[in-house]
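Posting this for the archive.
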Amino acid sequence: MNLDSPQGTPKRKKVLAPRVQRNSVGLLHRETLDQFAERASRQASGQSWKKIGLKHHYGVNVPVFSLKTEKSSGIGEYLDLLPLIDWVSRVGYDVIQLLPINATNMDNSPFSPLSSFSLNPLLLSISQLPFLDRETDDMKALRQDLRKMNSAERINWNQIRQLKGSWLRQYYNLIKSEESLMAEYASFKERECYWLSDYGLFLALKEKFQWKGWKEWDIQLPEDSLARYGMCETLKGEHAEEINFHMFIQFMTFAQMSKVKQYAESKNVFIKGDVPFLVSMDSADVWRHRSLFNTWRTAGAPPDGPNPDGQNWGLPLYNWEAMGADDYKWWKERLRVASEFFHLFRVDHIVGFFRVWSCPEGGKASEGNFEPSDSNSWVPQGEHLMKMLIANCNNMLPIGEDLGTVPPEVRVCLQNLGICGTKVLRWERVWDQNGQPYIPIEDYNRDSMTTISTHDCETLDLWWRDQQEEARAYCNFKGWDYDPNELDSQKREEILAETLTSSSMFHINLLNEYMALVPWLVYEDPALERINLPGFLLDTNWSYRMKPTVGQIADSSTLADAMKRMRSLPEKQRRSGSTTFVSESSAI
């Protein structure tokens, strides 16, 4: 054969990628990376995907308040994230997921904040603020008392609030007239004008009325929007100094979290934030923007088998009609603020944008109903709102929390928009099939995040010990013997590795799940590692503090080696299984 002749040139056989399939609920799965990348890049969130990178991402999930460094003041603080970023980058991971960091109410829950815009001032790294050379002896004593609290197993929010609040007020009085800060502070106030002074006024009045809910205040805003604005402006004049204190502290918190984001970018690490779906009834948002919320109806969960009474969460519903009439300005501003600190964000209770269980305020969940009541309008409403979020999130990539009972058509809609869902390894089963078999990790759809647990459920240790029927079923799936009294290190690492080798594009676990690979890094009692027990008002909720400092975690070569070992598994497997890309249209 004459190979120099065009007619004699042998034709290469085209290698086709496998056909993409749909699973039992209609989701595309078993895509190659090339197939997924082509699809995701042309969906509504395509620009966000391109910014993050159409590849696998690996990370840790931790509440800021749980962190501990030698510079902490009794609670995890924003700049404690800097050494964590260093460590995450060093072990080859690239995402740090945070719980919400908004200012919290007295219940300390990050999911019912005082404001959907403000940052929590109690997480301010006070030892790294400017002008500390002006600190008084009293302020030094307060900081010393706060540092002593670093050794406590749980966070004492009330004591932190008292001591740190006193220190911050004294600090403000020392530097509030500092000329070198005034130009930047003025720019901050102008940029955040939509919410900042209203938040300051809300807190000033909360303090005036001994932190009672705004419905119990002696001062009530009128329903008419123009009259409401006029009254707020009058009140702002009366409480100007107190309002300025709260605004100035926000200026400091924003500066620190902006520094965190910039530092993360220098280390090729992404910060994943959390945007709660609902807001607290007792919040600056509802108090100031009453027309945007249906305060006579509250969200909850419908009655079901495990919970025959259902749940009424007491959080007001959105008035989507009023928000739409205002061109969703509240949401646009909220997303703009979030994008100052985050590269991607968790959308809490994402099904709520499609439909939500609506209860009468103060009433029983069993008296509720889904809103909208017409199930045919769920997907059109949700799709419209999701597109609004995507268009205004400044290329942050949304990742939905779609756990629990979610209509299949909702998940299909999210996939069509390029929005990831969440896969909790222990819950990924075919629940309507005999024996409820586990779904193989290679069958997870690409647009998802795999994890072993969440802040609302047991850690792996507690699940293994307390949920014996589920744990035994998982062992049967893996071909293991089950001993409820011992989760050995080999099984623990293999379970963690499962979350890192799934077909999901994101693989993120709670930091303390990784830490448990080295027994001395976690508490002997696994109950102390739990972050929240939903449905109960407990002092242990939202008070989890890591046992070691971030520095001690970083010094553990055993943990670093295990993290790198698990992280390397997917690369080896997928490098040998690459395929030549063909378009989605020809593959389905």
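Residues 1-9, 572-588 have pLDDT under 50 and may be disordered. The chain is about 40% helix and 10% strand.
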